[in-house]
């Protein structure tokens, strides 16, 4: 018995640290392994399919009352784009800014802020969930994306809408550090999907994405592109950026950010 | 039957009995992998914003719990605050050495997170894949356990057991454990609490953090009184799971590790002939 215990102890003293070392470095190796990453990522399709099954296209994110609004709404990501073109727009109070809408549309168009403000508007007090884990509640006023898309008439092949932004979160030679995001038809035509120009009854500030920020209320904050310059209707986003449909999706985050 | 330390005066007759069904064994080991991955990737996700709040939104100035690095008189220190009460946790929480040996501000230490380096996106990939596996595995277990009457046969305590709960608690407090072929009353209540309270809670609180789920099932957010409360309770439930695992593994080790491991792998458990069944 003693002998058995000794050999077991010797076994354990040899095996446990080795297993521990393997577990620690091994997990990081596993996390970098492409096959493992693809397998883990397959859960995103399952999540999207199941959530889409339970969510009707018009089921709304909760709307709150004025009293619920966060006293200090945290700004994340880029808070003050230093791209020269954007700086010039800030200097002139966005008076020269126009939202370009093109791609797979019959009549590409551009809209000034005044034109967007003259269109039908929607105001909503919603909870903003950051992928990091925190939530803030804010009041957003803007034009429903559906109204803008109606003005340009979509071609039948249009499946996704790509939002090109003014800010670069990462300096890259090939331009893939520029922020962009994309949504599908279901979210584009959701009643709460708006292009917001006001926040908490004031003109949208630079830290929160002036002059225009996308709101996609049933998904996480990183979907809600700030500093929107251009919207393109496309049939696929495979050739954009690094091919995953957004700045953060290109860096490993889910394209479908409903979770 | 108590597990006594040392050799008994007379050796009672021992036989191998079939203790754990294939269902219990397979779902148990899948669960082991799931919980290990979910806890470690969950800590990775927590580290992206190592603070907890109550309600729908985050009150950044007034968290229930936070872990951060602060500047002390003799350099950076890790400080964990629980209800505003600060604890020095340098080296473990708030400030610890990373995989490359560098001291860095992070909630939980590198060795507790998956992956070990800071990478929220990859942590989420691990977490959501294994969350699906965990839920499916748990549903298979629960449905099959009702159908096979495992719940009633092995987990629901008898009236006699419930009447003897005081003695069982007193015995456990003296580290006298009645761990035999069948579960004692505290084991049964612990397993029931884990399977039907803590694990469903951790899943529901996790779901309530999803903005998509919240749009489809608003009552889930109400159930938790807000997304940030759900996040806090998700963390509390995960802590309960970790505590359970520590006690569970400890008990396995001291009540016959070989016999216990064999019974959870092959199903066969060496029991004493004439041992009282608890029902």
Overview of this structure, please?
The complex is a heterodimer of chains A (259) and B (279). Chain A is of the alpha+beta class. Chain A is 30% helix and 24% strand. Chain A is built from six helices and ten strands. In chain A, strands 2-1-10-5-6 form a five-stranded mixed beta sheet. In chain A, strands 3, 4, 7, 8 and 9 form a five-stranded antiparallel beta sheet that branches. The relative contact order of chain A is 0.16. With 279 residues, chain B is α+β, with helices and mostly antiparallel strands. In chain B, helix 1 packs antiparallel against helix 2. Chain B is globular and about 65 Å long. Chains A and B meet through helix 1, helix 2 and strand 4 of A and helix 1, helix 2, helix 7 and helix 9 of B.
What is shown here, in short?
The complex is a heterodimer of chains A (259) and B (279). Chain A is an alpha+beta fold and 259 residues long.
Greatest chain-chain interface? A-B, 49 and 42 residues
Give me the side-by-side strand order of the main sheet of chain A: 2-1-10-5-6
Note the gap between the termini of chain A: 54 Å
Low-confidence stretches of chain B: none
> How many angstroms does the end-to-end distance of chain B come to?
14 Å
Rg for CA atoms of chain A? 23 Å
Oligomerization category of the chains in this entry: heterodimer
Number of strands of chain B: 8
The major beta sheet of chain A can be summarized as:
5 strands, mixed
Topology:
The complex is a heterodimer of chains A (259) and B (279).
Chain A: H1 2-32, H2 34-54, H3 84-91, E1 98-103, E2 109-112, H4 113-118, E3 122-129, E4 135-144, H5 145-152, E5 160-168, E6 178-184, H6 185-188, E7 194-199, E8 202-203, E9 213-215, E10 228-234
Parallel strand pairs in A: 1-10
Antiparallel strand pairs in A: 1-2, 3-4, 4-7, 5-6, 5-10, 7-8, 7-9
Chain B: E1 14-18, H1 22-47, E2 51-52, E3 65-72, E4 75-82, E5 85-88, E6 94-97, E7 103-106, H2 120-147, H3 150-155, H4 159-163, H5 165-173, H6 185-207, H7 211-216, H8 218-224, H9 227-254, H10 257-265, E8 268-272
Helix pairs in contact in B: 1-2, 6-9
């Amino acid at each position: 018995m003693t002998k058995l215990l000794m050999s077991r102890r010797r076994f354990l003293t040899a095996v446990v640290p080795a297993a521990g070392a393997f577990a620690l470095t091994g997990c990081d190796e596993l996390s970098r392994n492409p096959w493992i990453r693809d397998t883990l990522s397959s859960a995103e399709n399952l999540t999207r399919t199941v959530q889409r099954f339970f969510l009707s296209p018009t089921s709304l994110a909760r709307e709150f009352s004025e009293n619920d609004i966060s006293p200090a709404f945290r700004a994340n990501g880029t808070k003050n784009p230093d791209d020269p073109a954007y700086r010039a727009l800030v200097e002139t109070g966005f008076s020269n800014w126009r939202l370009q809408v093109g791609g797979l549309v019959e009549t590409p168009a551009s809209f000034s802020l005044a034109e967007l403000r003259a269109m039908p508007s929607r105001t909503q007090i919603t909870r903003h969930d950051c992928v990091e884990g925190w939530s803030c509640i804010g009041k957003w006023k803007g034009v429903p994306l559906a109204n803008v898309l109606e003005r340009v008439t979509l071609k039948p092949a249009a499946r996704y809408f790509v939002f090109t932004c003014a800010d670069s979160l990462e300096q890259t030679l090939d331009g893939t550090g520029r922020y962009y995001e994309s949504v599908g038809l279901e979210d584009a035509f959701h009643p709460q999907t708006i292009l917001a120009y006001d926040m908490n009854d004031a003109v949208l500030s630079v830290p929160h994405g002036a002059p225009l920020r996308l709101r996609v209320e049933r998904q996480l904050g990183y979907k809600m592109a700030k500093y929107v310059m251009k919207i393109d209707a496309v049939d696929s986003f495979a050739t954009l950026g690094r091919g995953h449909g957004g700045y953060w999706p290109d860096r490993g985050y889910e394209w479908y950010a409903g979770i | 039957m108590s597990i006594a330390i040392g050799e008994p005066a007379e050796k009672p007759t021992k036989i191998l009995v079939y203790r754990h069904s294939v269902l219990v064994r397979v779902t148990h080991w899948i669960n082991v992998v799931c919980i290990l991955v979910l806890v470690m990737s969950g800590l990775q996700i927590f580290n992206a914003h190592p603070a907890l709040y109550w309600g729908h939104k985050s009150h950044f100035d007034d968290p229930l719990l936070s872990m951060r690095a602060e500047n002390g008189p003799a350099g950076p220190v890790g400080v964990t605050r629980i209800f505003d009460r600060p604890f020095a946790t340098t080296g473990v929480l708030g400030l610890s050495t990373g995989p490359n040996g560098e001291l860095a501000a992070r909630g939980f230490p590198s060795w507790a997170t998956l992956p070990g380096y800071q990478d929220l996106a990859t942590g989420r990939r691990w977490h959501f894949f294994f969350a699906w596996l965990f839920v499916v595995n748990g549903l298979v277990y629960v449905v099959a356990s009702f159908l096979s009457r495992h719940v009633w046969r092995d987990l629901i305590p008898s009236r006699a057991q419930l009447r003897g709960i005081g003695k069982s608690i007193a015995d456990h407090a003296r580290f006298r454990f009645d761990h035999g072929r069948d579960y004692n009353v505290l084991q049964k209540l612990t397993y029931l609490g884990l399977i039907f309270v803590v694990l469903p809670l951790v899943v529901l609180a996790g779901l309530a953090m999803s903005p998509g789920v919240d749009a489809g099932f608003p009552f889930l957010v109400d159930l938790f009184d807000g997304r940030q409360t759900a996040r806090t309770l998700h963390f509390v439930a995960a802590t309960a799971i970790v505590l359970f695992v520590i006690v569970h593994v400890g008990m396995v080790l001291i009540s016959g590790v070989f016999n216990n491991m064999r019974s959870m792998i092959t199903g066969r458990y060496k029991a004493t002939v004439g041992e009282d069944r608890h029902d």
